[in-house]
Write a structure and sequence with these properties.
Elements (H helix, E strand, L loop, with lengths): L1 H15 L8 H15 L2 H25 L3 E7 L5 E6 L3 H9 L3 H15 L3 H15 L6 H20 L2 H31 L9 H9 L3 H28 L1
Antiparallel strand pairs: 1-2
Helix pairs in contact: 1-6, 2-8, 3-4, 3-5, 4-9, 5-6, 5-8, 5-10, 6-7, 6-8, 8-10, 9-10
C-alpha cells in the first residue's frame, strides 16, 4: 500500500511542480546525435522502431476511443508491423482512428519537447506513466506486451525515483527521438507508395483510401502536413533553447 501511495503522490507531484533545466549546446547536439543513431541505422532502428510502432498503434487506439469506438486490442510485430482492432458505427470514427497512427510519434515528440521548454516535464512524465499503464489492457501479443511492459516500467521508475533534472533530460531526449522516428516512418511510407508498391496493402493511407473512397495520396498528404508541421515546430522550440 505504501508503494502505491508513494507512486500516486509522485504522479500528482509531477502535475504541480515545474522545473527548468538549461541545456548546453554540446548536450543538445549529443541528444540530436543519439536520436539520429536510434532512428537511422537499421541495427538500432530494429529495436527503437518497436517503440515508435507502439506509439503509432496507440495513436490509432486513443483516436478510436475519442470517437466512442471500442478497442478490442492491438498487436505489434518484430518487423514493426502493427494492427489495431476496433469497432463502432461511425464511419468518421474509423477514419479518424486510421489517420492518427503515422502522425502520433511526431505529435507526441512535439508535446514532450514543448513540455520540456515550459518546465512541465514532470507533468509529461506523469501523463505518460498513466497512459502506458492503461495501454497494457489493449495488447494481445507477446511482442506488444513486452514493449508496453518495459515502457510502462521505465516510466513508473522515472516518476518514482528520478530527479527533476533527469526527468527533464529524458523527456527532451525522448521527444527528439520520437520526432526523428516519426519523420523516418513517413519517408518509409512514401517509399512504399512510390518504389515498393507491392507493400501497399499494409499502408494506412492505402487502407483509408480503400475504406473511405478518398484517394490514398490525400491521406498521405495529410500525414505529411501534420508530421512536417510538428517537426518544424520542434526545431523552432529547440532553436529557442539555443538562443535563450
Amino acid at each position: 500500500m505504501n508503494f502505491a501511495q508513494n507512486w500516486w503522490e509522485a504522479v500528482v507531484r509531477g502535475f504541480t511542480d515545474t522545473h527548468t533545466t538549461a541545456v548546453p549546446l554540446p548536450a543538445l547536439l549529443g541528444i540530436l546525435a543519439c536520436a539520429v543513431v536510434l532512428s537511422i541505422p537499421r541495427a538500432t532502428w530494429r529495436w527503437f522502431g518497436l517503440y515508435v510502432t507502439f506509439v503509432h498503434e496507440l495513436g490509432h487506439a486513443y483516436a478510436a476511443l475519442m470517437t466512442g469506438r471500442f478497442v478490442h486490442g492491438l498487436r505489434i510485430g518484430l518487423d514493426h508491423s502493427g494492427r489495431l482492432v476496433s469497432s463502432g458505427r461511425s464511419a468518421f470514427g474509423a477514419a479518424w482512428s486510421g489517420f492518427w497512427g503515422y502522425p502520433a510519434p511526431a505529435v507526441v515528440g512535439l508535446c514532450l519537447i514543448a513540455a520540456f521548454a515550459s518546465g512541465r516535464s514532470g507533468a509529461a512524465m506523469s501523463i505518460g506513466a498513466l497512459i502506458l499503464l492503461v495501454s497494457l489492457i489493449f495488447l494481445r501479443n507477446l511482442t506488444g506486451i513486452l514493449v508496453a511492459v518495459l515502457s510502462a516500467a521505465i516510466a513508473q521508475l522515472l516518476v518514482l525515483f528520478a530527479t527533476p533534472a533527469v526527468v527533464n533530460y529524458v523527456v527532451l531526449a525522448l521527444g527528439v527521438a520520437l520526432s526523428v522516428g516519426g519523420v523516418r516512418d513517413l519517408l518509409k511510407l512514401a517509399g512504399v507508395h512510390t518504389r515498393r508498391r507491392d507493400r501497399l496493402a499494409a499502408s494506412d493511407a492505402f487502407i483509408l483510401g480503400r475504406t473511405t473512397g478518398v484517394p490514398a495520396f490525400v491521406w498521405l498528404a495529410g500525414f505529411t502536413v501534420v508530421i512536417t508541421g510538428c517537426a518544424v515546430a520542434s526545431v523552432w522550440l529547440l532553436w529557442g533553447m539555443l538562443t535563450v
